[in-house]
Amino acid sequence: MSMKVLFMVPPGGYLAERWSHGELIPALGIGYCAAVLEQAGYTCGIVDANALRMTYDDVVEEVRKFNPDIVGLTFTTENRFYAFETLRQIKQRFPHVITVLGGPHVWNAAEDTLTHVPWCDFIVRGEGEITTLELVQVLDRGGDLRKVRGISYREKDGSIRHNPPRPVVENLDELPFPARHLYPMDAYTFHVDDPHKGRRRALNLMTSRGCPFTCEFCATPFNWGRKVRANSPERVMEEIEILVNQYGVRGLWFFDDTFTFNPRRIHDLCDLMIERKLDLSWYCEIRIDTVDYALLKKMREAGCFLIGMGVESASTRILQEVIRKGKGFSIDKVTRVIRWCWDLGIIPNPFFIFSHPTETYEEARMTMDYILSLKREAKERNRPIDISISIMHIYPGTPIEARARREGIIPPDFSWSVPNPPGIVTLPASQGDIPLYIDKLSWEQISELLFEWSQVQGYSVLRKIPKALKSIKSWRDLKQYVTMAKAYGKVRLRTLLEGSPA
């Protein structure tokens, strides 16, 4: 057990709006991997360079001090170029260090990454705990890399090898809790704002993996599998009590993709939370066709104050024929669940996406009109609502990526590992450095919808101008922002003449 492993989150990068104000939370995946390695007797460390506001030089210094044999990086598609640069800096200073990449991006872009990122030695695909342990053991003791399922790497002749995938962990209760003692916990200042109980320190946890649904823009079924596996309610409560007693939290952010996939399990978990009187405020994400009033009521009694729900569109055609939400999903049901939330004192947080495949402006307008109707009803009822919107993102390994390549929205020579590729529409200042799916809607129409929403929400577009200007790297980018400025002017003029639509 001689090898030392340093896990890392790279510095900087895009953050979604809810995380962009300086309040961050731990990346749980590396915590699980570190916990499994520690159980096996290995020395591990975690450096969250983003939370600690580190520079690349700071990262290099941390590597020098820890003196690891292996450095493992986790990152997202939006932050991939920061991770690649971090690897480059480490490899240049410490060429003997073995570098391993993991996380949702490289799970589905392993070939591309190994082809274009020479500073990466290994990629861990899929759930990383057991794969990382076996990889470290083979590197430490010697053995056959070909027998380590779930890794990709270069052979001695430079060819890329993808070992067979590893089966998922069926019993999540067998995994240790994330090694939170290795994180810079004081750097995580995340809070939830519960209107009933005020501002409360919060941390995140994940109690299930997998999603049985087939939304074509989502990578979850391909990353975690279609079969949902979950911790038992008793195991979840054990972790919650650790967060409460050791870290002083009174807020929880459940990272499960579909928290309510098994309503009976959530009833049982809520019963335990109520019984133990922990006085918590928490958030989760649901599918509207997996809940009823009784379940939402139990969740509220247990402290749930905010619920995220993917709606995506108000068009029945888009919901059923394009996204394939299923027969149990309808806008009428969405409205009913939102009203149940209001009746129970829960803040509904519906998510919407513009620029679905084949979506017309009339269908996008239908979605915006529905959003505005929710805002008006919330105002009339004097109830809160937290609506999120975005443009369709393209992630590696998803059906939407395959479709974008077939249709030429992504050019044939596109690489996820080469910055500023031609022919790709991105909006780094507000959507991250990630391709956007632009089909029937024009960029001007999409921009008008976004600016109309920002007007309703009272968001200041002006505060994003400096970041937008810094992201301009080509005439194409400049033209894109000129189109957005034109759309912004039209929306502002319409607002002045007609007033706010909500």
- Secondary structure class reads alpha/beta
What is the 3D shape?
A: globular
Average pLDDT: 91
C-alpha Rg, in Å?
23 Å
Number of helices: 18
Ranges where pLDDT stays below 50 over 5 or more residues in a row are none
Query: Could you tell me how far the N terminus lies from the C terminus, measured between alpha carbons in angstroms?
Result: 62 Å
- Biggest sheet: strand arrangement: 2-1-3-4-5-6-7
**Which bin fits the share of residues in helices?**
40-55%
Q: Characterize the biggest β-sheet.
A: 7 strands, mixed
Q: How much of the residues is beta strand, in percent? A: 15-25%
**Total number of beta strands:** 16
Descriptive overview:
β6 (151-154) and β7 form a beta hairpin. Strands 2-1-3-4-5-6-7 form a 7-stranded mixed sheet, sandwiched between helices. Strands 8-9-12-13-14-15-16 form a 7-stranded mixed sheet. The protein has a two-stranded antiparallel sheet with strand order 10-11. It is built from 18 helices and 16 strands. The protein has helices at 28-39, 56-66, 80-93, 104-107, 110-116, 129-141, 220-223, 233-247, 263-275, 293-301, 316-322, 331-344, 361-381, 399-407, 428-431, 443-457, 465-470, 475-498, and strands at residues 4-9, 43-48, 70-74, 98-102, 122-124, 151-154, 160-162, 191-194, 198-205, 208-209, 229-230, 251-254, 281-286, 304-312, 347-354, 388-391. The termini are far apart. It is an alpha/beta fold and 502 residues long. The radius of gyration is 23 Å and the shape is globular. α9 (263-275) runs parallel beside α10.
